[in-house]
Design brief:
Blueprint: E1 2-6, H1 10-21, E2 25-30, H2 33-41, E3 47-50, H3 56-62, E4 70-73, H4 78-90, E5 96-98
Parallel strand pairs: 1-2, 1-4, 2-3, 4-5
């Protein structure tokens, strides 16, 4: 299964590592460059993209969201998560899950 996760904080990182153990193809998108590099150093995650997970060009061109089976927006910001899920849905993601408080 191809899965994209926006937000590599505690929850996003946990999801990514758990799903990687189950042999899923994981892409993590993180806006904090330092955190993205830390996660990229962990060879368990297939792809790490440093950038804004609400940006249509990033989701469509770099992350190839149209081939995504499952899209998680797991940042700590509700508006970011809602926007990311909307762009992912419009970009062709099969299913989106949004973290809101």
């Amino acid at each position: 299964m191809r899965i994209i996760i926006v937000g590599a904080g505690e929850i996003g990182r946990h999801f990514a590592l758990s799903l990687t153990e189950k042999s899923h193809d994981i892409t993590v998108i993180e806006s904090n460059d330092k955190l993205a590099k830390e996660i990229e150093a962990n060879d368990e995650i297939n792809t790490v993209i440093a950038g804004n997970g609400t940006h249509p060009n990033l989701l469509i061109d770099q992350a190839d969201v149209s081939q995504c089976d499952l899209f998680f927006a797991l940042t700590s910001d509700d508006n970011t998560n809602l926007a990311a899920c909307r762009v992912a849905t419009e970009g062709g993601a099969k299913k989106t899950i949004c973290r809101v408080s």
